From TrEMBL:
The keyword Transmembrane helix applies. The chain crosses the membrane at residues 45-68, 80-99, 111-128, 140-162, 174-197, 203-223, 235-257, 269-289, 310-338, 350-369, 381-400, 406-423, 456-474, 549-570. It is a multi-pass membrane protein. Residues 39-514 form the Major facilitator superfamily (MFS) profile domain. Gene3D superfamilies: MFS general substrate transporter like domains. Keywords: Antibiotic resistance, Cell membrane, Membrane, Transmembrane, Transmembrane helix, Transport. This is MFS transporter. GO terms for biological process: response to antibiotic. It comes from Streptomyces alanosinicus. Pfam families: MFS_1 (PF07690). GO terms for cellular component: plasma membrane. It is found in: Cell membrane. GO terms for molecular function: transmembrane transporter activity. CDD domains: MFS_MMR_MDR_like.
Amino acid sequence: MTGPAPAAHGPAAGIRARLLARSARLRDTPPGPGYKWVALSNTTLGVLIATMDASIVIISLPAIFRGIGLDPLAAGNIGYLLWMILGYLLVSAVLVVVLGRLGDMFGRVRIYNLGFLVFACASVALSLDPFRAGAGALWLILWRVVQAFGGSMLTANSAAILTDAFPARQRGMALGINQITALAGQFLGLLAGGLLAAVDWRAVFWVSVPVSITGTIWSYLSLRETSAGVRGRIDWLGNLTFATGAGILLAGITYGIQPYGGHPTGWTSPWVLTGLIGGVFLLLVFCVVETRVAEPMFRLSLFTVRAFAAGNLAALLTAIARGGLQFMLIIWLQGIWLPLHGYDFEDTPLWAGIFMLPLTLGFLVAGPLSGHLSDRFGARVFSTAGLLLVAASFLGLLALPVNFDYGVFAALLLLNGLGQGMFSSPNTSSIMGSVPARYRGVASGMRSTFQNSGTALSIGVFFSLMVSGLASTLPKTLSSGLQAHGVPAGTAHEAASLPPVSTLFATFLGNNPIGHLLGDGGTLDRLTAAQRATLTGHTFFPELVSGPFHHGLTIVFSVAAGMALVSALASALRGGHERADDDTSEQGQHPGTEGQPAWRTARSS
């Protein structure tokens, strides 16, 4: 006769048993009226931590590299720098649509909960990096990739969970809060990275640990599946061609900003060209595959929905413009404006995050409000007007002098944030509300793919534009300026001939660019004390490069304004409010609407 099971299973087994028992009760109990607010608060936390960690290392990179004893600007080390910045973004861009599809198949809450757990484990591993130099950098890059995998599970399914939980009349408000939290997280990460790096570089990663552990326990205890999973098979060929094609295409664009041969950028490099051509080819193969498999990963038929197609096009172009804005503002503040106003170069990463707060404030104010109003009046007017404000702010930044008045600069950042907030919330609601319930996970993943791809693309696009603008004017200006302060002609020419991207990265990392250019060869030691003080002071480099830098900014902000205007046009062409019925049947038909997909027939003005 079998006796009772032993009582002593340890505390971990007891906790696990209680979690499983509570999860079973949640599955058997229909969600109450307050569940939607639980879903909103938990997914907002998940999206916030995922997007903050996408950008938190940008400002803190100088402290991180000092902590592991690595010079990222030394020969052969630039790859570590690029992958620390872009590895998280590339993984997110490639995987979110796959993870959204898995959410549709196996449960959105299940994949979301697993994402919190993976994210927490990766955050612990990042903060415990046991290595130094190159090995330490590889450890961080590897676990950043794992962290991005967990973050992608969160972002790919959060919008679908909210769309399931909220009725249509409140969906814009809920998705607005979620989306604006994601956008604000990108900029709050800059500020948090600067503040935490001043304490200890490991704190940049430790800060995510208690938040992600709390979120993991909370999500397992409170969230439940409110829609049935869609039975299906994984589209392995589609997954493989998309992940490989998108990955090597984005990597090729990223490496295009590095110099190659005698060129300031690497767009003529055989490796870059192979990545670009191969990536485009594999994505074309992916499109063919998706039209021929029974259960595709990427629902190309959704692009026949005007609201879905126009909304994603607008989101892609806006993400490119927004990413370019973020990096160009950081370089502008750190390399020119802050030093001109007495800030040490090594302190500029922290202060750049602080001085960009009006942008985040604009997001936080406009996002929830426009989401709420779009529930009543439709998405088109708010999203289109928001993009026009974004374009106007870019034109305003274009007109500013390099040494601007901060009040005007802050007003333009606030205007840009308000415009992006007005656009993002209604646009997300429009996209998610235009597809049937059973496709919300993959639709959320597709939306996130366009957004994350745009951010990754922006770095290659705008850095290349800035480098091209600097390459035509910076060498001559830099050489003559160095010679005028006692640097030998040969040394000045050699320093001026270095690729402009190295100067940009030095500024980005909070290094004194002149110290970076002249420090290794002992040139500064052979100059007089007065000459050294002038060359490495706060004002020499900013005043010297202000002309070439402004030329590059003119190109960057002109392109960004053009993208915002094209995005506004796409938003305006989305048509009236197009909404899929929440009660769509599995065959995709509305009751009483024969032969027409539900998301093509449920329209309201």
